[in-house]
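Query structure, 429 tokens:
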């Protein structure tokens, strides 16, 4: 059985002079009234009575009162909680008549139930952390989120490098007519030397023909001038004629090769090699871009797997409210983050999480419900009844939605409430 408040009596606490309330067991009990009449003092008194001295107001004793503060709270399990006397000492008596203390109250009173704004005012990530700790998947989810963030950061870095590589490769000039590898100067020089040597040999042979021809002509003249040496010279001339014939035959088919192309290649070798290196750089940049793109895709696959594991982890968890989840470290309800939730949904989420923190605590305290319209109030009240939860709340109003009206520190009857509505008790002690 969850523990709730059956009856409470408050006297001389902050602005409250004397108030007695019997809140409804399931649903919403609204304490109404104008500003500065003592509505919030009622909630502060309950928090002090059940939560201990750390919730004691800085000026707990009502100004102008001779009598000290007095609190008397009866729980639905029969437990009686009192604070009275000069020092407002705590007295807790269980149903069996045995005395207890704050530790007994702490066993069923959830701190956030008497200080719900503490939870509602926390950051979205803090709310999510509270939920994850409750359902017991915090460590696993944190590890998955750490892995996801690590992969995400790594993927982002890879993606940036891949984009840079693509851009660099696209900016490189490419020469389709250039060879695949740089040209070696030594090879061209060797080819040139071979041709020059061959041409030199051809020239030597041509010069040889010319020299023999000149010799033949000189000998012919000598024959003409020296008939007395005719026989000797004719013999020598005949031999020379043979040599001339042989030389002419070997030189007649000689063809010189041109070194013009090699000379051009030598002159252009630096330009050719520059184009080759440019092409190689572009191909390398394109290969790098493809490699990093593949790594990016692989990291994306890992991130998707991590996110699927997170979804499965939360799907199988014992969540306090259907539709409640944690996405990217933030609390969501029916797909909406906290700042996009309606006021009613925010209260539902907060109440459900607080109840899950300490299931034995069946009540919560709420302040300043004037921020909610009547439709939202009615929706939230019906949900509380459905869940079997008790909420005691304040609202700047004297309308029919208020079971209790606080006026100048006293509880007065709300004449606008129908006779068949919830039980109301006045300020008598």
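Result returned for the query:
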């Amino acid at each position: 059985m969850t523990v709730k408040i059956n009856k409470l009596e408050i006297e001389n606490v902050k602005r409250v002079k004397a108030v007695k309330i019997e809140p409804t067991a399931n649903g919403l009990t609204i304490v109404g009234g104008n500003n500065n009449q003592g509505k919030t003092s009622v909630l502060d008194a309950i928090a002090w009575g059940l939560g201990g001295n750390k919730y004691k107001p800085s000026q707990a004793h009502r100004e102008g009162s001779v009598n000290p503060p007095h609190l008397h709270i009866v729980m639905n399990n029969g437990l009686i909680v009192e604070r009275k006397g000069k020092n407002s000492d705590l007295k807790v008596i269980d149903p069996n008549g045995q005395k207890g203390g704050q530790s007994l109250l702490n066993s069923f009173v959830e701190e956030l139930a008497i200080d719900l704004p503490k939870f509602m005012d926390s950051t979205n990530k803090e709310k999510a952390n509270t939920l994850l700790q409750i359902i017991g998947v915090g460590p696993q989810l944190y590890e998955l989120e750490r892995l996801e963030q690590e992969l995400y950061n790594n993927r982002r870095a890879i993606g940036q490098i891949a984009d840079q590589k693509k851009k660099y490769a696209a900016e490189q000039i490419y020469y389709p007519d250039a060879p695949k590898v740089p040209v070696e100067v030594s090879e061209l020089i060797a080819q040139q030397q071979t041709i020059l040597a061959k041409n030199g040999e051809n020239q030597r042979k041509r010069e040889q023909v010319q020299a023999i021809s000149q010799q033949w002509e000189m000998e012919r003249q000598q024959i003409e001038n020296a008939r007395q040496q005719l026989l000797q010279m004719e013999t020598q001339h005949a031999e020379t004629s043979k040599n001339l014939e042989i030389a002419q035959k070997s030189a007649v088919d000689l063809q010189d090769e041109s070194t013009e192309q090699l000379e051009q290649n030598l002159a252009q070798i630096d330009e050719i090699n520059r184009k080759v290196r440019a092409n190689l750089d572009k191909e390398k940049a394109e290969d790098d871009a493809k490699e990093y793109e593949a790594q990016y895709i692989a990291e994306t696959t890992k991130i998707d797997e991590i996110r699927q594991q997170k979804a499965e982890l939360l799907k199988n968890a014992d969540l306090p409210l259907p539709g409640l989840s944690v996405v990217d470290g933030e609390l969501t309800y029916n797909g909406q983050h906290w700042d996009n939730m309606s006021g009613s949904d925010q209260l539902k989420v907060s109440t459900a999480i607080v109840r899950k923190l300490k299931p034995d605590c069946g009540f919560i305290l709420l302040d300043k419900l004037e921020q909610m319209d009547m439709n939202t109030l009615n929706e939230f009240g019906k949900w509380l009844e459905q869940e079997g939860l008790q909420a005691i709340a304040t609202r700047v109003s004297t309308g029919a939605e208020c079971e209790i009206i606080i006026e100048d520190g006293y509880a007065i009857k709300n004449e606008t409430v129908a006779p068949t509505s919830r039980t109301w008790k006045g300020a008598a002690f």
